[in-house]
Amino acid sequence: MAPQGDSEVNAVSFVLNGEEHTVSPPAVPLDMRLVDYVRYHVGLPGTKVMCREGGCGACIVVATAPDLGGGGTRTFSVQACQLLVYACANWQLETIEHLGGRKKGYHKIQQALAGFYGTQCGYCSPGMVMTMAGELGRKGTVTSGEVEGALDGNLCRCTGYRPILDAFKSLAGDGAPALKQRLADIEEAYKTTCPRTGQPCAGKLSDGTCRSQAGTTGTTAKDGTTTLGGTTTTGDALADARPSVTAGKERWFHPVSGVGVMNALKMATPQDKVLLVGGNTGAGVFKNDGPYTMFISLAQVPEMQQVNIAESPIKLGARLSLNQCIDVFRSVCEGPKAVAGYGHLKEMADHWQVVANLAVRNNGSWAGNLAMKNRHKNFPSDVFLTLAAIDAQILVANAATQQPEQHPVLEVPQLDLRGKVIVAMLLPPLPAGTRVRSYKITPRAVNAHAYVNAALRLLLGDDLTVKEAPRLLFGGLGEHFVSASNTERYLIGKRLSDVSVVREAARLLAEEATPHPDPHQGSPEYRRSLVQCLFYKMVVGVVGGSPRVRSAGDKIVRGLSSGQQSFDETPDTWPVGQPLPKIESLVQVAGEAQFADDVPLAAGELHAYFVQATQACAAIDSVDATQALAVPGVVDFVTAADIPGKNSYFAMDMFGPVKPDPVFAVDRTLYHGQPLGLIVARDRATAEAATKLVKVTYSDIKKPVVSIQEAIKKDRLELPIGWDGKPASSVVFGDQDGKGLMEKASHRVKGKMEVPSQYHFTMELMTARVMPLEDGYDVIATTQFMQETQKVVAEVLNVPANSLNLTVRRLGGGFGHKVSRCNLSACAVAVAAAKLRRPVRLFQDLRTNMSSIGWREPYYASYEVGFSDTGRLEAVAMEVYSGVGHVPNESTAVMASNIATNVYFSPSWTISPQNAILDTAANTWCRTPGHVEYIAFAENIMDHVAAELGKDPLEVREINILNIADEKQPADGGPNVFKTSILPVLKEKAMLEQRKLEVEQFNRENRWRKRGLAVTPMKYPYDYPPLRYGILVSIYEQDGTIAISHGGIEMGQGMNTKAVQVAAATMGLPMQQFIVKPTSNVTTANSTVTGGSFGSDLVCQGVKLCCERLKARLDAFKATQDPAITWPELVKKAILADVDISERYWPNTSEFPKGYTIWGGACVEVEVDVLTGMHVIRRADVVEDAG
């Protein structure tokens, strides 16, 4: 880093992938995050970006930093989207590119993930790998439990975690022998044994040297000083308060002592906004706290990393990370280093283990967490609550007075910390008899803020009398409530074994705990009940009780997971159907797989960011971008006035007439978040910042309709389009006189059910890049439907379709999200590129991605069911409403109704579908669109009937399962495979009868914990729609290698791998002979949407036909040649003989395979804590006949 002495160097340095990097403004702004530096400045796109909140794990890198408290260094995983570049001074950083790759050899972790089939789209894979690399670097060895815990901040939207966990557990010290053997087989397959050491290859460094010979990157002296670029820096050499980096009014300080921190704080002016930089992980929670003008790094202040457990109270420095504190807590609460009076720190360690996620805990400091609580009183900080409960104190240094201050942690929300810095915390020992319990009730088990959290401390006598004022602290109730002081005073001297005392305490808690209404935090009633229930849980945990009641005192704990998979294999068809890692899996785990935003920036390329409406239903009076355009680096503001063609990004008319869906709003806004325009600037950060300066005024603001129930009340309903292209008022299966049958039914019940919307959560966000050319435009877009993207961009630009060149290498997940919604960004960027005649890129962030475009349709159904005394259905009538958004272009209300009966028979099913028009973004398809909802309605009806009759839900289901002889509903004519095959297997494999008895016994024996066991069937008709994918198979004369180009979109489903398997089997050649090229609208023009799992089947059929024709031609030519001719020789001679060695196929729908039905069944056991709602899935068994 830049010395703070006499040198005027305006820069800091660190090591990245073994090379020294020196950064300075203006090239690297002072607030730049590491993820942007490595991706866009260094050109290392293997580190992905998605949430920019520290919650998804896509951006994980490994850091090695000086450990000023323990000496030497410490290695850990960290989120590059939170880490500020200038905070990395003197650090060593490693990205996925440095760990391993094609040129250096793949690391063992990468091989494991690929070999265990742990990738699909591959967007999350580099982050997964680097998390494990960081954890192995931090601990040396890991257990299987630690593997599961390490991935608490890594999201995978495609694969599911079983193969990922299996891959990494094979690296664990206690990994199952079968997993370890499988890993050994994978290593053998990759032939990665090091000839020098005999150990698995660790990869190579960027200079080509063996990693096992080179050791770690950079060097660290034994005294903790760091050797960087040949210069050794020490604390004494850097102890000055001048800023190390300055850019205008902004400056960074890197003090190396507490005095240096004080001196830096004293330099702040009233106009400065100061950030004391620890891990900067709070930026993922509170995104609008900046911008800052002063950054003061605490990373090199030794006293802030000190740990003193030799004296009482224990003293921990402010820059210690949460994980460092957890390690201290565990060491002093039990084991050989246990310290008397600190047994309660085990409870603290367990609680802090579920704060945020591993990477946040690795770098986020406890003091930074308290500082967040100080700035944001309503932040439900677990750190604050648990420390306050044990009477922890903080030491604060005051820059103005130069005097130390000491405060109880409980006072943190009220403290004025301006011009001050937290230096350390003091943890006093607690007397014998002290009981500490803490709780965190969350929507997810990990990586989530609490609905309500609690930290409770009681000092009890032998007779369970409360000897002194307890601590009853609660979070999540609002910024003004923390301590239940009335209840605390009441409990002094009371005996907890007295039931009346507990009841009165619970009453007082309900009286003084008044949760503030917050739609994100659950209802006030629920949160108030949690306050009472958590107190009761502690009482039961301390006092005990009858065996039936005792479960109230326990927490729901998720045990170590495991999974098994079995499937039928047909070796005689291999490589078709052979279980193999995807052909892209290794490049995915190495970060070498290229996604849309990974494409290198072109010369002069600009970046765009949406300006969005902040009112949903309002007249737009004015949009003033004057201030935004004055920002240095801003190039233009693009609006609807700049569109040369149609202002709509939807043109898909395959399901009937369409309504416009504007690229940019005109006159009135249609929904909150609708784009009003596009700021275009030289870099993404400038574009984003400038959007906040665009001034928009509104009038005639109306309350938006955002729920289906509201739409029904306001009669904002439309009939959906049926299969015949006409409005459909009803869909009837069976007897048309459903009303008459309903009136004759022995029993009738009515009910309602809602299935809310769902964000698709693709790991790769919407991205588009448009580059003007001499004859048109190159378009890169994250699209599942290239033909539609080509069509709407051409219509928006008013240019011919042949002027657009589109390519898609792969998508980081699709799920229907990128069928049509991707075209908003593609069209917007195209308008900007056409206007400016420069390349323009838009890589949406999570906020704009979630607010500018629609999600899965929400559904609402009201139903009436007629049934017999046994529960057999006699008539079913459903009114089904789809919340389509502001236009109904992609309603599934009719399309999915063919699955409404699921596996069940009723003499009559009457479905009345309607579209509910909402003032939201137009909703769209999402993974089996509409089908999930209709199956949910059918299953809810079964449960309702069972509850009405007091019968076992499975018994009612079995009574109503469609028989072979039953009238076709809907028509498929085949046997009910669920009844004949799947349910018997499921009952056996899931040990259903035995487990039903076990569940019943458990529920009898436990009042406050209950288990449930449910069986759910599935019937999914799979008929090929008229989707067409062009195919081109080309053999190359030089060496006989073969390239496949197809019109499908690879997005993790393994389409390319299946195509190669089919081609290899058909041609009789090894798979290594084939490669799949990116999808292009030139080689496979007019290909339709990839979705609904149809793409892989139809692409493979096309590839097969192409290869059969090629093989037939070459076999005929080979018959005229020497039988011993080799394949490369055959190809060379064939082309000289004018044999065409390329083949194109365009589908004929009459050649499509016959459709079939996919059947499945699941048996799931769940355990729920009745007092809190926390739950865990104990076991899931799934059986599927895939057709």
UniProtKB/TrEMBL annotation:
Protein name per Swiss-Prot or TrEMBL: Xanthine dehydrogenase
CC per GO annotation: peroxisome
Chain spans, region Disordered: 212-236
Binding, Mo-molybdopterin: Q784, F815, R927, G1092
SMART domains in the record: Ald_Xan_dh_C (SM01008), CO_deh_flav_C (SM01092)
Alphabetized PROSITE patterns for the sequence: 2FE2S_FER_1, 2FE2S_FER_2, FAD_PCMH
Cofactor: [2Fe-2S] cluster; Mo-molybdopterin; FAD
Gene Ontology MF annotations: 2 iron, 2 sulfur cluster binding; FAD binding; iron ion binding; oxidoreductase activity
Binding-site positions, FAD: S365, W366, A367, G368, N369, K440
Keyword terms: 2Fe-2S, FAD, Flavoprotein, Iron, Iron-sulfur, Metal-binding, Molybdenum, Oxidoreductase, Peroxisome
Residues involved in [2Fe-2S] cluster 2 binding: C121, C124, C156, C158
Cofactor comment: Binds 2 [2Fe-2S] clusters. Binds 1 Mo-molybdopterin (Mo-MPT) cofactor per subunit.
Residue ranges of domain FAD-binding PCMH-type in the record: 245-432
Subcellular location, record wording: Peroxisome
Keyword Iron-sulfur attributed: yes
Regions of compositional bias (Low complexity) in chain numbering: 214-236
Ligand binding ([2Fe-2S] cluster 1): C51, C56, C59, C81
A matching Pfam family: FAD_binding_5
Family statement: Belongs to the xanthine dehydrogenase family.
Domain 2Fe-2S ferredoxin-type: 10-99
InterPro entries: 2Fe-2S-bd, 2Fe-2S-bd_dom_sf, 2Fe-2S_ferredoxin-like_sf, 2Fe-2S_ferredoxin-type, 2Fe2S_fd_BS, Ald_Oxase/Xan_DH_a/b, Ald_Oxase/Xan_DH_a/b_sf, Ald_Oxase/xanthine_DH-like
Main location: other
